[in-house]
Amino acid sequence: RIVRSDGSWGHYAFGHEMKTLLLTLERATPVLVGSTTTRIVCRRGCAHDQRVAEQHRVVFASLADARSVGYRPCRVCRPARVA
Asked: Residue 43 and residue 60: Cα distance in Å, rounded?
């Protein structure tokens, strides 16, 4: 929800249905983070992901995308496995 300047509750800019759709899409889209230095891709939140410096961070929507440009899955969080 949006809090207005007077403290009252506002509405989402594009309506409740659009916000629900966006949240559903966000949950369904796996976010993977890769390191340009190690060429390893992790699930967001992995211990290794948290150590990747911002300037070396790259985000992928799928493991297939990451593999297509030479990244390998992390051996700790195993993004190749279905959650």
From this structure: 10
